[in-house]
């Protein structure tokens, strides 16, 4: 028992080293868990995702509550987060969104699965989000008239930097969206659907929104990263002298804050009404309801 307690203390000490003191997958500080066969230290949420992968991929143990054998502690010492990063993240595309501690669950889960299950980043060009510059498929889109979701075909084209969607296969696209003018962010909380994505873009002087989801988490994250890949390519063409890492930091942004506020008119004589406000980058937008498709006003921050 004394040796097991000593092992536990040694392991905790290893976890506090600068290369190990944050979760290997999301960066949350002071991890309490570890994968004893991969050799990484993890936060509680990421450890839960690892556990769902199955013990044949990742074996999860608590740093403080579980017993650690000497050979397991030594394995953690020889490996750790940095060694795993060099292996499992060697070829992560610059445009790929890597999760932080507060990112949506679907982003975190698909990042973990991509790294350790599918091993997408171990080899160069291990995964492609567009085939020949094109991504095509069906997404559930929220209808404007009755708020119901229906499958719609979407076509993302990296050659002309547009996103099209179709209501009728035999007709022209319902809309053509310039990737330069659009933003994409996850909105599971607002929609009440785990794999939900909001596309926001400007057209004819107003802000328009598409609310989308897929049944499978991988599908929506793949679409999201395809959007990022397309905009990254566009930025490289538009700003040829700019460092690629800088361009990758200026793709899509999550909304800074959203919520209900009471609003009155400019004269102050109008009645107060609740409106859904969204702060995005330098703009403050407001809508009648959280999932309104269009008709917002905005002002510079």
Q: What's the topology here?
A:
Blueprint: H1 2-15, E1 33-35, E2 40-42, H2 44-53, E3 60-62, H3 70-78, H4 80-88, H5 105-117, E4 134-142, E5 149-157, E6 162-166, E7 175-178, E8 182-186, H6 188-191, E9 196-203, E10 206-213, H7 217-238, H8 244-248, E11 257-263, E12 273-280, E13 283-287, E14 297-300
Antiparallel strand pairs: 1-2, 1-3, 4-5, 4-10, 5-6, 6-7, 8-9, 9-10, 11-12, 12-13, 13-14
Helix pairs in contact: 1-3, 2-5
Averaged pLDDT: 92
Q: What series of H and E elements makes up the topology?
A: HEEHEHHHEEEEEHEEHHEEEE
What is the radius of gyration?
Answer: 23 Å
Number of helices: 8
Total beta strand runs: 14
**Largest sheet data:** 7 strands, antiparallel
**Beta-strand content bin:** 25-35%
* Oligomeric organization of the protein chains: single chain
What is the CA–CA distance across the termini?
61 Å
Strand order of the largest sheet: 7-6-5-4-10-9-8
Regions with little confidence, pLDDT below 50 for 5+ residues: none
Please bin the fraction of helical residues.
Answer: 25-40%
Globular, elongated, flat, extended or rod-shaped: what is the shape? globular
Assign the structural class, choosing from mainly alpha, mainly beta, alpha/beta, alpha+beta, or little secondary structure.
alpha+beta
Features:
301 residues, alpha+beta, 27% strand, 8 helices, 4-stranded antiparallel sheet
Question: What do you see in this structure?
Answer:
By secondary structure, this protein is α+β, with helices and mostly antiparallel strands. The chain is built from 8 helices and 14 strands. It has helices at residues 2-15, 44-53, 70-78, 80-88, 105-117, 188-191, 217-238, 244-248, and strands spanning 33-35, 40-42, 60-62, 134-142, 149-157, 162-166, 175-178, 182-186, 196-203, 206-213, 257-263, 273-280, 283-287, 297-300. It has a 7-stranded antiparallel beta sheet with strand order 7-6-5-4-10-9-8, covered by helices on one side. It has a 4-stranded antiparallel beta sheet with strand order 11-12-13-14, with no helix packed on it. A 3-stranded antiparallel beta sheet has the order 2-1-3. A hairpin with an 8-residue loop joins strand 6 and strand 7 (175-178). The relative contact order is 0.09.
């Amino acid at each position: 028992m004394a040796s097991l307690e000593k092992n536990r203390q040694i392991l905790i000490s290893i976890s506090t080293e600068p290369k190990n003191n944050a979760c290997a997958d999301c960066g949350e500080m002071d991890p309490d868990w570890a994968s004893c066969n991969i050799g990484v230290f993890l936060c509680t949420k990421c450890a839960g995702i690892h556990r769902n992968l199955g013990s044949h991929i990742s074996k999860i143990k608590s740093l403080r509550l579980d017993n650690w054998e000497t050979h397991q502690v030594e394995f953690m010492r020889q490996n750790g987060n940095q060694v795993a990063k060099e292996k499992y993240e060697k070829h992560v595309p610059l445009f790929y969104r890597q999760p932080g501690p507060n990112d949506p669950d679907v982003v975190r889960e698909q990042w973990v699965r991509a790294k350790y299950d599918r091993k997408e980043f171990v080899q160069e060009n291990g995964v492609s989000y567009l085939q020949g510059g094109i991504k095509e498929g069906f997404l559930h889109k929220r209808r404007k008239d009755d708020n119901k979701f229906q499958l719609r075909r979407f076509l993302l084209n990296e050659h002309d930097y547009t996103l099209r969607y179709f209501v009728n296969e035999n007709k022209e696209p319902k809309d053509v969206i310039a990737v330069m003018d659009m933003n994409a962010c996850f909105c599971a909380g607002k929609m009440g659907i785990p794999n939900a994505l909001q596309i926001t873009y400007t057209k004819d002087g107003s802000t328009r929104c598409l609310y989308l989801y897929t049944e499978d988490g991988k599908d929506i994250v793949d679409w999201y990263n395809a959007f990022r890949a397309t905009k990254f390519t566009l930025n490289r063409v538009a700003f040829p002298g700019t460092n690629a890492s800088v361009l990758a930091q200026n793709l899509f942004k999550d909304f800074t804050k959203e919520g209900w506020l009471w609003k009155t008119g400019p004269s102050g004589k109008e009645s107060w009404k609740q409106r859904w406000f969204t702060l995005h980058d330098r703009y403050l937008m407001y809508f009648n309801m959280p999932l309104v498709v269009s008709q917002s006003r905005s002002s510079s921050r």
